[in-house]
């Protein structure tokens, strides 16, 4: 990706669902996030656009480069906690990494979360996803010793939280 190529962030629509599924699942395989207990196996991955929307205080953003899906990231309420959201499914194709696409996605998702009135943001990931973990730390996420109660991703081994009120 050269400097003149612009990445566009758009809300997920049904026309993005198949490409998003392929990105999420292929990147998941790359990092060993395969099977039950990992985000790429969640049922929502089959049709991301149907599981996010402002009516549910959730948003999934798709990163497009020249009209092609290169990744995405979302925000949704965490379980029954109306004041806690979850940063969900930040997955980028290898060619999109290291080019601030992840930064732009996380920044937009956290801004949306604040606008929705969430007080904290939770995420879970894998130790193998070091560049993502470093990105989360830049945004002020801190490590938890264990998963936050209610997480469904029991295959993850890194859990992080961030206050949205500072």
| CATH topology description | Aminopeptidase
Beginning-to-end CA distance, first to last residue: 34 Å
Describe the largest sheet: 7 strands, mixed
- For the record, the CATH class is Alpha Beta
Based on secondary structure, the structural category is: alpha+beta
Contiguous runs where pLDDT drops below 50 for at least 5 residues: none
Order of strands across the widest beta sheet? 1-2-3-4-5-7-6
Strand content: 25-35%
Query: What series of H and E elements makes up the topology?
Result: EHEEEHEHEE
Helix content: 10-25%
Count up the domains: 1
Backbone shape: globular
Please tally the β strands and state the result. 7
Give the gist of this structure.
The chain has 166 residues and is an alpha+beta fold. It has helices spanning 17-30, 101-115, 130-138, and strands at residues 7-11, 59-65, 68-78, 81-92, 120-125, 142-144, 158-163.
Characterization of this structure:
InterPro entries: Acetyltransferase_Enz (IPR052777), Acyl_CoA_acyltransferase (IPR016181), GNAT_dom (IPR000182). Residues 18-165 form the N-acetyltransferase domain. It comes from Vibrio hippocampi. It holds the Pfam family Acetyltransf_1. By secondary structure, this protein is α+β, with helices and mostly antiparallel strands. It is 23% helix and 30% strand. It has helices at 17-30, 101-115, 130-138; strands spanning 7-11, 59-65, 68-78, 81-92, 120-125, 142-144, 158-163. The protein has a seven-stranded mixed β-sheet with strand order 1-2-3-4-5-7-6. Helix 2 links the parallel strand 4 and strand 5. The longest helix is centred in the middle third of the chain and has 15 residues, at 101-115. It is globular, with a radius of gyration of 15 Å. The chain starts with 6 loop residues before the first strand and ends with a strand. The mean pLDDT is 92.
């Amino acid at each position: 990706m050269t400097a003149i190529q612009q990445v566009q962030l758009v809300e997920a629509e049904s026309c993005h669902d198949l490409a998003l599924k392929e990105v999420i699942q292929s990147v998941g395989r790359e990092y060993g996030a395969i099977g039950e207990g990992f985000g790429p196996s969640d049922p929502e991955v089959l049709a991301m656009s149907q599981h996010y929307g402002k009516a549910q205080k959730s948003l999934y953003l798709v990163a497009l480069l020249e009209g092609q899906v290169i990744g995405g990231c979302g925000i949704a309420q965490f379980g029954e906690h109306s004041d806690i959201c979850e940063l969900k499914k930040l997955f980028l194709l290898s060619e999109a990494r290291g080019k601030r696409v992840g930064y732009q996605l996380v920044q937009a998702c956290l801004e949306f979360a604040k606008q929705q009135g969430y007080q904290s943001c939770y995420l879970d990931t894998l130790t193998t996803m070091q560049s993502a973990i470093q990105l989360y730390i830049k945004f002020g996420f801190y490590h938890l010793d264990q998963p936050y109660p209610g997480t469904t991703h029991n295959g993850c081994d890194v859990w992080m939280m961030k206050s949205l009120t500072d």
